[in-house]
């Protein structure tokens, strides 16, 4: 059945016509109109969003808001937060927001209030954290655990990795020494390194996998298990002890955890209604809680909840996630800007771009609508990023003088280092922070104005000219704290949802990754058995035979 796609709606058509009048207007020209900064910047939940460097005017935003209403964004937000089955291809709700509801809240899904179970899991996490921090979680030989290794990939790795790194300043000091590490790659690179350095007696593995079938994680887990057993087991009985003292499982499948041998008391469960890339807020966040303590983990949840409330309650025109989403839609669908760079100016956000790459591209990298039709418009842009100051010395050349139009998000804390105790160090570090902010603001300014940013714009050869006109958003955090980080992540989660609503796609499934997994299993069989290679295409055959030949040398 053919349905009317959003690009046929008058609101979309109006934007298309409007884009024709805007396309040739340079950002420098737009900035000759006063009042852009107050008009296009908004604050909520500890964040400040400056959208004035987008290539739009009031009229543009009004039309985009009409589009959001036409696409049913307000109703979709209400459905998402109420726990309706918004993930239609998998027929389930997407309730990451329930993971950060306060204990006194109520959210009934399929006749059951989910909040008590959410908080029961948080309490179990708190108990594990308490034991580890008190030096009471002991390995099989009785020594307290000193290293925790999270084995997981995708959503079961990137969220905890990104947040633990971002909040490293919040590591509790008065605890038994404990380091948290992450191993994700199926080739075993990270794990192999840990196994040469860590003491098996004091190493605890957290097996994080929503499905508990992901080969990347299970192959790392098997290697870790063999390593422990070969070092710690003397008699038969010890195997159970090692299994019990050195493995925690986090999954939506308790049966599979049990099959693998995770002791029941070491199983932390979450639910099918939490998507993998939206899962850091519950049991998958255990490594975060171990790294920064349960109080800080709960503060992260509170920050995200503050953004959830803003998302639910604010009018569309002052709703941060909605505005961020509309800027992306405007660039992508109307100005043909299909590359998006994420540029944090804070070393603690080193893994933020990788995290958003999964969040945005696995969620909205889709080309079929919720009605099963191919979209006629473009959806998720190519999104990538790196720490801004380092990227300045790597790919900013392309941003300034390349041929691609790119939208950028600059992210920075307004205040940093003012709590460093030593006075001289504090002064130097605060200067470094100021330098970093200056670079952040300078880059977005040059990207916007191009040559006009230069006071003395005398004659210059063309290779020294700057085109400018690259749109950007700047997100400022008061400070980088558990609360503001929670709010920042929730901002992007909701942005993704709003865009998906407008594009009429499902941001909560990821069928596109399934075929690759299936073919990999078949390919591994061929590689190992040396049978069936003739049925493959010429390139795959050539590559496999080259490996066999190398192995025989
Ligand atoms: O292959 C993609 C994916 O399913 C992601 O969506 C998910 O975050 C990741 O793999 C890990 O999955 P799991 O948590 O089930 O091991």
From TrEMBL:
Active site residues of this protein: 362 (proton donor), 393, 517
Family: Belongs to the GPI family.
Reaction equations catalysed: alpha-D-glucose 6-phosphate = beta-D-fructose 6-phosphate
Pfam family for this entry, one: PGI
Keyword Transcription on entry: no
Known EC number: 5.3.1.9
Protein name per UniProt: Glucose-6-phosphate isomerase
Keyword annotations of the record: Cytoplasm, Gluconeogenesis, Glycolysis, Isomerase
Pathway: Carbohydrate degradation; glycolysis; D-glyceraldehyde 3-phosphate and glycerone phosphate from D-glucose: step 2/4; Carbohydrate biosynthesis; gluconeogenesis
PROSITE patterns named in the record: P_GLUCOSE_ISOMERASE_1, P_GLUCOSE_ISOMERASE_2, P_GLUCOSE_ISOMERASE_3
Localization (cell): Cytoplasm
Function recorded in the entry: Catalyzes the reversible isomerization of glucose-6-phosphate to fructose-6-phosphate.
SUPFAM superfamilies: SIS domain
Annotated organism of origin: Modicisalibacter tunisiensis
Principal subcellular localisation of the protein: cytoplasm
GO terms for MF: glucose-6-phosphate isomerase activity
InterPro entries for the chain: G6P_Isomerase, G6P_Isomerase_C, Phosphoglucose_isomerase_CS, SIS_dom_sf, SIS_PGI_1, SIS_PGI_2
């Amino acid at each position: 059945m053919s349905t009317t796609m959003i690009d046929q709606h008058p609101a979309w058509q109006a934007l298309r016509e409007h884009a024709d009048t805007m396309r040739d207007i340079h950002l420098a020209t737009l900035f000759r109109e006063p009042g852009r900064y107050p008009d296009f910047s908004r604050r909520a939940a500890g964040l400040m969003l400056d959208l004035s460097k987008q290539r739009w005017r009031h009229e543009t935003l009004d039309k985009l808001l009409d589009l959001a209403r036409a696409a049913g964004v307000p109703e979709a937000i209400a459905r998402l937060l109420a726990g309706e089955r918004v993930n239609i291809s998998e027929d389930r709700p997407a309730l990451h927001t329930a993971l950060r509801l306060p204990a006194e809240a109520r959210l009934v899904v399929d006749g059951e209030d989910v909040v008590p179970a959410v908080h029961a899991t948080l309490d179990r996490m708190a108990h594990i954290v308490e034991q580890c921090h008190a030096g009471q979680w002991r390995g099989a030989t009785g020594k307290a655990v000193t290293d925790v290794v999270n084995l997981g990939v995708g959503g079961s790795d990137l969220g905890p990795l990104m947040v633990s790194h971002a909040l490293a300043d919040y590591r509790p000091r008065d605890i038994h020494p404990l380091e948290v590490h992450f191993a994700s790659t199926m080739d075993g690179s990270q794990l192999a390194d840990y196994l040469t350095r860590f003491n098996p007696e004091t190493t605890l593995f957290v097996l994080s996998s929503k499905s508990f079938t992901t080969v990347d994680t299970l192959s790392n887990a098997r290697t870790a298990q063999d390593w422990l057993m070969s070092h710690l087991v003397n008699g038969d009985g010890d195997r159970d002890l090692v299994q019990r003292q050195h493995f925690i499982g986090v999954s939506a499948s308790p049966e599979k955890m049990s099959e693998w041998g995770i002791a029941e008391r070491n199983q932390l469960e979450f639910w099918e209604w939490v998507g993998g890339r939206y899962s850091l807020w519950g049991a998958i966040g255990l490594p975060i809680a171990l790294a920064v303590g349960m109080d800080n983990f709960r503060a992260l949840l509170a920050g995200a909840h503050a953004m959830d409330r803003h998302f639910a309650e604010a009018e569309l025109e002052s709703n941060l996630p909605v505005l961020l989403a509309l800027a992306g839609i405007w660039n992508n669908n109307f100005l043909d800007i299909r590359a998006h760079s994420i540029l944090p100016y804070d070393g603690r956000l080193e893994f933020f771009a990788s995290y958003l790459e999964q969040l945005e591209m696995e969620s909205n990298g889709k080309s079929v609508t919720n009605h099963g039709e191919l979209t006629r418009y473009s959806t998720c842009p190519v999104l990538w990023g790196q720490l801004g100051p380092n990227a300045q010395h790597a790919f900013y050349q392309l941003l300034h003088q390349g041929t691609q139009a790119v939208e950028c998000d600059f992210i920075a804390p307004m205040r940093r280092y003012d709590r460093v105790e030593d006075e001289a160090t504090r002064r130097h570090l605060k200067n470094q922070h100021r330098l970093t902010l200056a670079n952040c603001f300078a880059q977005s300014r040059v990207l916007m104005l191009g040559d006009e940013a230069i006071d003395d714009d005398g004659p210059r050869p063309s290779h020294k000219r700057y085109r400018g006109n690259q749109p950007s958003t700047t997100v400022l955090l008061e400070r980088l704290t558990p609360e503001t980080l929670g709010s920042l992540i929730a901002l992007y989660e909701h942005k993704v949802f709003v865009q998906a609503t407008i594009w009429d796609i499902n941001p909560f499934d990821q069928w596109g990754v399934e075929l690759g997994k299936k073919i990999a299993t078949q390919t591994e069989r061929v590689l190992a058995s040396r049978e069936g290679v003739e049925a493959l295409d010429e390139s795959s055959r050539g590559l496999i035979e080259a490996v066999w030949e190398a192995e025989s040398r």
